[in-house]
Amino acid sequence: MKVTVIIPNYNGLKFMEVCMKALEKQTYKDFEIIFVDNASSDNSVEYMSENYPEVKRIIMSENTGFSSAVNVGIKASNTPYVILLNNDTEVDKNYIKALVEAMDLDKRIFSASSKMIQYHNRELIDDAGDMYSILGWAYQRGVGHSVNGYDKPCKVFSACAGAAIYRRELFEIVGYFDEMHFAYLEDIDVGYRARLYGYLNVYEPKAIVYHVGSGTSGSKYNDFKVKLAARNSIYLNYKNMPALQLLFNSFPLAVGFLIKWNFFKKNGFGDTYIAGIKEGIASRHKCKKVKLPIRQFKNYIIVEFELIVGTFIYVKEFIIRKSTK
Questions:
Q1: Among 3.90.550.10, 1.10.760.10, 2.40.400.10, 3.50.50.60, what is the CATH number of 3-211?
Q2: 73-92 confidence digits (pLDDT tens)
Q3: For strand 200-211 and strand 154-155, is the pairing parallel, antiparallel, or unpaired?
Q4: If you ran DSSP here, which 8-state letter would residue 244 be given?
Q5: 316/72 Cα distance (integer angstroms)
């Protein structure tokens, strides 16, 4: 086997049939599936046992979050590549084939992100690779834009772990998904670390997947999601930026946090956002900071440049998206 598809699940029974049937139709057959269940109570495990007894199942005793679940799956695999796939997805028949071919192009590639299309509006992109900005904002490249665009492979800051392939052996170098995150921004974090170590994250438009979105959390914005994302944004910057870089970026980061707070305040989540920021600041010392040899200092410079460029890309895409509505 060359590929292991890891499906983390928490009460995703309503999605499993579509997800699994799409995997059955793959033109690329050299893969296995590991189903990691986070203590579901909706008969997800029973469904998989009855309908897909050949699939390896790992049952967690409690809901440990996305990061822990996928780490367990990755460590239980022994294939060169692992694909992380959300349960609320339907992949194209050539999905795995396209991702494997993208990874085979260059051993420096840590991850390849899919062309994620909105499940309920298949004319619009959901994610064409994840980006990060100097304002401390992570965002989905191409979100809300026409599916007719974003049709060329390219480098991105990070892959969206909802539907991405990773080179398994490199987790031992850059580290696994940070379980302190529980969920949200953990894919940006691991992609950030990969960039600091000099590896690449790419986007493969031939790997098409239809994504429902918020299949586990239930909505785009809610207290649980807003608080975790705010907290994890503190972890993300603290871990991956040395003190001098944090000082250098302190003003744009502060501006970014202020704009976010104002946005969430208008949407009824202002206090929740502040609570997440406070929790992140109070517990940041528990994070494991990235410490690279001095010879790799240039990677911090490269990433800093990418954060600046990422800010301009965000502004450009935001303007285009607003002008087409």
A1: 3.90.550.10
A2: 999 999 999 999 999 999 99
A3: antiparallel
A4: H
A5: 38
